């Protein structure tokens, strides 16, 4: 059963001079527990799609449904993790997590215990009283994930959350987030420019065209990759074949812009 449904979704931006068609006729179903990545040429509208799903901006046409209910505004049922951690520098790690519960009005002892359990799973149980400035970039992104999961959203939106990290940290964090989401049976939609990341983490990859963005092609990852952790998937013999296939499709789209 689809947790998230987009039906013929379109988005237009208006100015005094003209109308910009950003998204055209996007239809997509994402099942509960599925991990889907969106890739495409730079500026094609990937983040715009996430913003519409999150209820931050309104779509111009079509329907966006979460569990068959229209998305009309922001909701605690949708978590949004961005490129930057956006931790409050004047609050401790524990306070940063708790403020997420306060904002969503879900601060209970049970939920606080849940977030501390998550913090422990992230290997940061002993850093609860530290300030963000005392943590590395990868640690802060782990805290950001805990904060995002604090309200127990059914859908997690990931907007290039690993892009600012060094490669080794990025690989470790991919594995950790993938394992955590699978264990918690979360549904995730990732926007990324990194083809390898998309292949390693996803059940499906959606390739968007140039603006106005349409779904150009969908790639279903084989079981031998889906069943592995992201790091282990990168070691599989078929991984490079998938990379070359998707890279060629994306390169063809990029050449249309040039």
UniProtKB/TrEMBL annotation:
InterPro entries: AAA+_ATPase (IPR003593), ABC_transporter-like_ATP-bd (IPR003439), ABC_transporter-like_CS (IPR017871), ABC_transporter_ATP-bind (IPR050166), P-loop_NTPase (IPR027417)
Residue ranges of every copy of the ABC transporter domain listed in the record: 4-235
Keywords on record: ATP-binding, Nucleotide-binding, Transport
Gene Ontology molecular-function annotations: ATP binding; ATP hydrolysis activity
SMART domains associated with the record: AAA
Coiled-coil ranges (or none): none
Species: Natribacillus halophilus
Gene3D superfamilies: P-loop containing nucleotide triphosphate hydrolases
Cited Pfam families: ABC_tran (PF00005)
Signal peptide annotation: none
Protein name: NitT/TauT family transport system ATP-binding protein
Superkingdom of source: Bacteria
């Amino acid at each position: 059963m689809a947790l998230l449904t987009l039906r013929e979704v379109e988005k237009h931006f208006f100015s005094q001079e003209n109308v910009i068609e950003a998204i055209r006729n996007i239809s997509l179903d994402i099942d509960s527990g599925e991990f889907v990545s969106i890739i495409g040429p730079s500026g094609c509208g990937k983040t715009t799609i996430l913003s519409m799903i999150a209820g931050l901006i309104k779509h111009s046409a079509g329907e966006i449904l979460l569990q068959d209910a229209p998305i009309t505004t922001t909701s605690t049922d949708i978590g949004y993790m961005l490129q930057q951690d956006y931790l409050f520098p004047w609050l401790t790690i524990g306070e940063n997590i708790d403020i997420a519960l306060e904002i969503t009005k879900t601060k209970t002892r049970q939920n606080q215990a849940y977030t501390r359990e998550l913090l422990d799973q992230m290997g940061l149980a002993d850093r609860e009283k530290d300030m963000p400035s005392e943590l590395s970039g990868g640690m802060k992104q782990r805290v950001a994930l805990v904060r995002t999961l604090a309200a127990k959203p059914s859908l997690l939106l990931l907007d290039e959350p690993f892009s600012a990290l060094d490669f080794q940290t990025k690989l470790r964090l991919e594995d950790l987030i993938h394992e955590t989401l699978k264990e918690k049976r979360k549904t995730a939609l990732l926007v990324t420019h990194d083809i390898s990341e998309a292949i390693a983490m996803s059940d499906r990859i959606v390739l968007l065209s140039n603006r106005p963005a349409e779904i150009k092609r969908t790639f279903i990852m084989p079981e031998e990759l889906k069943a592995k952790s992201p790091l282990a998937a990168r070691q599989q013999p078929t991984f490079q074949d998938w990379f070359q296939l998707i890279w060629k499709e994306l390169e063809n789209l990029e050449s249309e812009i040039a």
